[in-house]
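pasting input
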Amino acid sequence: MSGDKNLSRKSSAQNFKEKVVKYYEAIFQDKDPSNGNGNFWSEFFLLRANIEALQTQFTTISSHDVQSIKPNINEFFVRCVSCLSEPQSMRTVNAIQTLCGLVKGAFAQSKGSYGFDVIDLLIGFDQAESVMQKLIDCLQKILSSRESAVSLKNICLRFLLTIVTLTDNVSQNTLLEYLMINSIFDALLLILSSSTLRCNHGNDSVLLLILLVQYRKYDSTNPYIVNLSILDNDIALNGLSQIIALSLLGYNRQYREKLTQQKSTGLMSSFTSMVGSMFGSDETSKVKFKPDIPLLLALYECVHLNRNFVLALTTSHAGGNFGSTHSLTSDPADDLPPAIPRASEVPLSQTGELDQPTNLLATFIEYTSIITHDVRDDANFNVSKLCFIILNCVSEDHYANSLMHDPNINFRIPIHRVPMRHRKLSMEASPPSGPLACAVLELQVEFLISHMMKQMPAELYTLSLSAIHRLLVYQKKNRVRLSYPWKSLWAALTNLVKYILSNEAALIKVCNIFVMAQQVVNIFNMFITYGDTFLSTPGSYDDLYYDLIRRHVVYDNLYALALRYANNDEYKDHSTRLVHSLSNIRSVINHFCPKVDSWAKVNHLSSLTEEQVLEVVKTNYETLTLKLHETLDQFERYSEKPKESSFFMHMVRSLVLEVREKAVITKLEQTSLLKEFTTVPTET
Amino acid sequence: MDMPLPRVHMVRKKTTTENSHLLLSGADSIELNQNSSDPSMTSFVEGAERSKSSSHSLKEGLEDSGECNRLQCISSTPIDSSQRQNVSNAKEGSVKQDKFRKDLSLPFAVSSQRTRHDSSHIPKSKQSWLLRLFESKLFNMSLAITYLFNSKEQGVQIYIGNRMFTFQDDDVDAYLPQLLNMYVQMRDVAEAIHAYIVQRCRKSVEFAIKTTWLLDAYTVYQTQTGSKCGQGVKLRNAIINDGLVPRTNNKSMLGHLALSFNNSGSHHLQSHSDLSPRVNKTFVKSHSRSRSDATGMMNFTLTPSPTDPILISAAMSSNAAGYLSMGNNAAGDLMSGKAFDNGCICQQASYSDMLDSILRGSACKCCAPQLQPEMEFVTALMNIGQRLGALETKEQRTRHLIAELGMLNLNLPARVWLPVNRSTHMVVRIPATSAVVLNSKEKCPYLIYVEVLETDEDILAAPLPPRIPESQLRLSHSDEDFCPSPTIYDEPSLKPFSQPMAAVSSDMLDDQDCWSQEDDDIITFAMKSRASDTLSQYSYESSHSADSKDVYVTASDIKRRLTESLQRPGGRKNFKRDPDDPSATAMKEPWHQKVHRLREASPYGHLANWRLLAAIVKCGDDLRQELLVHQVLLQLQQIWKEERVPLWLRPYTITVISADSGMIEPVLNAVSLHQIKKQSETSLLQYFIQEHGPITSEEFLTAQRNFVQSCAGYSILCYLMQVKDRHNGNILLTADGHIIHIDYGFILSISPGKNLGFEISAFKLTHEFVEVMGGIGSDMYKYYKILILQGLITARKHMDRIIPMVEIMQAGSDLPCFGRGVSTIRAMKDRFHLNLTEEQLQELVDNMVESSLNSLTTKLYDGFQYFTNGIL
C-alpha cells in the first residue's frame, strides 16, 4: 500500500525531483542508496540538503515499515554525524541541515511518543549514546573553534535550537537527555565571553541556554542550571547582561522613536486624539510592540539562579566598551552580515545607540515602564508579570539592594507614563537623576495609579506592592535614607485602597482584596513605626501623618469593610488580620482628628491649611502610642516552585513555539550560505 | 686656600658667574681635603682609594668590572692599553662583553688623553682639582647634572656617567627628567649616560617605563618638527621593544643584549633600528596589529603544553616577534578580562620548575613583554579620559567614567601599579563608583581611587592574587540571606533551604503569632549552614522582637529618633552632593573615613596588605611643567628642612606619561578654596572657625600657624617660579589648615590671557588670607613676612641647586614656560636678588607683600575667573 503511494508520488513529480530527494526516497524505501559506490556518502553531502523533502519522507512511513527501514535511517544519521567530524566544508553544512530535517521529521511523525521511539528510529537505542556524544562533541568543536565561519556557527546553533524545540514541553524531549550528559555549556560560555562571538551568536546562545535550563527544571539535576548558578566569570556574566541589555535597549529606543513621531504630528492631532480618548479608545496613542520574551526569561533565570549576576546587572556599560579598546574587531570581513542570520530577531548591536552608558537594570526598568502600559493583552500581561517577578527577585537581594541604593550610581531613567484621561502626558525632557531604587519606586507608583480598571490586574498589584515592601525592608534594616518623594507613594496607596473600596463587589470576585489591602497597610505601618530608620527628613514623618489625617475617611471605610467580612467564612482570617494591622492607622486617625477639629474650633476656622494641620501634628506626638508589629520587615522569599511553576511552563511553551518557527533555514538563506562557502573558503 | 677655585674654573670651558655658588661648595669640599700638607699626593691616594671602592660598587652594579679601568684612568694614572686589556681579559665574560667594554672605554681613554693634551698649559695637578671635587663626598647628583650639562669635556661627561653608578638610585631618579632631557638634546651626554640608563632599565621595569614615558614627552618636539630621529627616540623604541628590560642573567640573553649595547656604544646608538623599524606613534599601532594577527593561533592553543624551554630561550634571543607569539594576545582588549596580562607563564608551577632547571634567577624567563601590562593599563586609563572629554555635562562624564572603570575592573587584579606611587604594589580593584570627574572645562581629568595589595617582591615576580568576585562580599555582609552560598549548589534541589522557608513563612506576613514560634527554628536552621557571626545580628534582632508580643512605642520617640539620627553626622559637615561638582564631596570626605568605607566594601578588604591609593588621571594636559615645579618644590622643601626654616610645602608626585598626558598624586584631605566658598558660603576666616573652633582655641591656632607657614612657602615659590593663574580653584586648603597651590600650567614666562599680565603681583595674597592670619599688623602677619624673608635668604644660598634644574629643562624645550628662551632663566636668577643685602631683601619682601595685598590685578583676575568660569 505504501509502495503504491510512493509510486504515485514518483510519477507525478518525476521530472522535477532533485537527485538528493531520490536518495532520500531510496533510504526510506529500504534500499541501499550507495549502490556499491564507495564514495557515495562523501558525494552525497555535497548535494544541497532539502529539508522539506526529507521531512515529508517521514510522513510516508507507515508503522509497518518502521522496523525495516530503521537500519537505513540509523546508518544515514551516523553518516551525517561522522561527516561533521571531517574538516569543515560545504559538506558540514549539508550534514547539519540533513540532521535538522531528520530530527524534525522523525519527531513530527511520532506525535506524543516522548521521543523514545524517535531515538530508536533515528539512531537506534544500542548506539544512541555514543553517536549522540560524537554529534555533540562535533557541534561543540565547531562552536568553540576559531576557524569556523560565522554562518557555520549560526547553523550549528540553529540545529541545536531545533533539537531543543522539538517538543512543546521542553521537559518531554528525550533527546535533550544527551545534551545533559554531554554539556555544551562551555561552548556557550565561550561565546558569551568573547566580544566578537557575542556580537554574532550571543542571542542564539542565550536562547539555547535558557531553553536547556528549562529541561526537567524541578525534578532532576540539570547541569545547565548548576553551571549557570555557580558561574562567577565576570566577563561571561557581563556578556550575558550586555546581550539582554542590548535587546531591551532596542525596544526602548523603538518606543521613544514612536513617541516622538506622535508628538511631532502637531497640535491638531493631539487635540483630536484627546477628543478621541475621551470616548474611551486611548489605544491610538499607545505604542505597541511585541514583547521580548526570550531575553526576559533569560534575565529572569540569571537573576533567579545566579547570585553573581547582580553585579553584572548593575555594571554600567559604556558605548565604547561593547567592542574592545583596540581595533581587534574592525576586521572588514566581520562587517559582512553572515549568510545565516540569527534565529532571534533582535536589533543588531549598534554602538551608536549606546552613547549614554547604562546598565541592564536601568534599561530593564524603563522597559518595564513601557510594557506595563497595556496589560489587558494576554501576552503583555504575562510579560509584565515576568518583569515584576524579576523586580521582586532583585529587590530581595541584599547586594542588589545595596547597589540600587548607592548614591554614587545615579541614572536618569525615563519612566514612561500611559496617557490617561485625567492627566496630560508630558514627557520630561530629562528625568531626574537618582539611585536606581528611586526609579523602581517611581515605576511601581506609576503602575499603581495607572491600572485601576475593571479587570484589575490583581496579581500584578500584589507583585508591585511586594516589590515596594522589599525595598523598604532593606532601607529599614540598613538605615538607608533615600531621598524620595514618599508623598507620591502614600497617595498612590491610599488611592488604591479607595479604588478597592468603591469596586468591592466586582473585585472580590477576581481577587482577595483583603490581602492586597493588608499589603498596603503593612507598608504604611513600616512608615509609621520604623520611619525613623529610613526617612530622609524629619518633616516627612509629619507629612505622613498629614496624609493619613487628610484621607482618614478611606481608612475608616476600609476598617468598616474588614469588620463587615469578619463573619464571612471565606474571608474571616484575612479580614481579622486586616483589622488587626489597621490598628496603628486607626490610632493615628483617632488621636489626631479630634485634635485637629478642636484646634479649628478654638481658632474659629472652618478649614485648615496644611501648615496648620502639621502644627497640630507636631505638638501632639507625645500622647500617641503605637503598636510595633514585629513581622513588618519579614517577607516570603520568592520561590518559583510551586507558586509560579505553571506560569513559567506556559511562558516557556510559548517561547518554544516562537523559536521553533524561526529556527528553520529557508531556501534563500541556503543559497546565500552556498555562496559564502564558495567565495570564502574556510582555511582548514 | 682659595687656590682651587680659579683652577676649577679654568678646566670648565663654559663658566658663568651664576655657578659661583656651586663652585664655592665644590671648593669647600676640597678645602676639607687639603688638611694634609701635600695636596696632589693626598688627592692621588684618596683618589685611588675611592676609585677602588667605587669600582667595587660598580662591579655589583654593572656585573661587569671593566668599569674600574676607566676610573683608574681618571685617577690620572695613565694605564696603557695593553695593561687594560690584561685586566679585562682576566675578568670572565663573553668576548662580546669585552668588546663592549673596550668600545665604551676607548673614547674616554682617548678623550681624557686629549683633554690632558689640550689643557697642557694647565699644570697637571690642576686637572685633579675637578677630579677631587668629583670624588669628594659633596659631589652629588645636583652637581653631576650641572657638570654634565655645562661641561663640554667628553671625559668629564663620561666620568660622571660612570660615577652615577655609585649614586643611590633614588638620588638619580630625582633628576631623571634632567638626565633624559639632556639625553634627548645632547648627543655627547647621551653617550655618557647611555650605559647607566640601560643598566637601570635592565634592573627595574618601573625605571624602564618611567624612562620611556619621559623620553616620549621630551622627544615629542623633535618628532613633531620632523627633525632627525634622535637618540632619545631610539632609546625609547629599544626599551619598548623589550630589548632592555630586566632579563634573567642567562648567558645567551646577555650576549644578545651586549651585542646591541656594543653597537650602540661604538656607532653612536644607531644600531637600535633593527629592533625598532617603526618609529614612535606608528609603532604602537603596528604593535597591536601584529598582536591581533597572532590571535588566531594563540587564544586556544595556549594551553600550557610542555614546549621545551630551549625553544623558549631561542625565541628569547631571536626577535621581537618571538615575544609576541608567546604573549597574551588579549592584552589591551578590556573585554577579554586579560587586558593587562602579558601572558607570562613563569608563575605557572609546571613551567617555572622546568625553566628553573635551565635558567636561574627570579625574574621572568618566558620572555613575555614585560612592559606591556603597565603600558596597557595606563593606556586604558588615558583612553577613558579621552572619551570623557567628548561628553558635555559632568553628570554624563561621571556616569561614563563609572561604566568605563567597571569594564577596566574586569581585568584586575593584574601585575600593574599606579604610576604615581612606587611599584611595590599590585592593583586589584578600582572601586568605580568612588571615582569622580574633576572640575575642568575642556579637558577631562578624573580622580580614581585604587585598591592595591602591597608586595615586597618585584611585582612581576610576585604571585597574582586570585580574582575575588564582587558578589563574594554579600556572604559577609548580608544579614537576610538564608540561601546557601552558590558553591554548595550542586545538590539536586537547587534551593534546599528555600522550601522549608516558604513552608514556614507562607503566611507570616499576616500572622505574627505563628511567626514568633517558628522564628527560632529558622535561625537554628540557618545557623547550620552559615557562619555564625553574620547571623548573630539577625538572631539578636529577631529574638528581641519575638520575645515581647506586644511592643508599644510612642510616636514622639520615633520622631525624636528620626530628628536625632539626621543630625548626628554633625560636627564637621560633609559637603552636599552636587552633580555639577562631584569632586567636592569626594575630596571633603576625610581620607581615613574613605579608606575605611572602601575597605569594608571591597572583596579584597580583608587582606592584610590591602591599601588604598589615589591618582588624578590627566589626559590632554602637558604635565612637564608640573613636573619641573614639583622638582623645584622638592628642592625648596629640602633646603628649608636643612636650614630649619619652618616653611611648609606639599610637593605632590607627577608622572609624565607623554607630552599631553600624565598622572598626578592627589592631595588628600584637601578641597579648593572655590569649593569651600561655594559650599560654606562664608568667608575663609569663618570657615576656619567652623572647622577648627574659636579663634583662641588650640586647634584654631595650630591651623592658623599651618596656614601662615604654608602661605609663606607658596608665596616664595609663586614668586620665584612666577606661578600664575592663581584663582581660588587652584588653591587647596587641607583639613589642618595648610594651603597648597596646584596647577602649574602658567609659570616663568607664560601667564594666562596671552601674557597680558593679568596678575602682576609677586604672588597671590588676598585680604581674606590676611584675615585668617589675624589681620595686618598681627603677630602672625609679621611672622608670615619673616618666614618669607628667611625662606628667600636660604633659597638664595642654595640657588645653585635650583637654577640648573630649570636651565637644563630649558635646553631644546618646547615648553611654553620657556617661551622667552634664555632670558627666562636670567629673569629667574634675578629673582634671587644676589646683589641685595639682607636689609634690602627685607625691604623687598615688605614691598612685595604690601603690593600683592593691594594688588588690583589679583582682584581683577578673581573677578575675571568668576565671570568666565564661575570660580568664586
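fyi Chain B touches chain A through 83 residues (CB under 8 Å).
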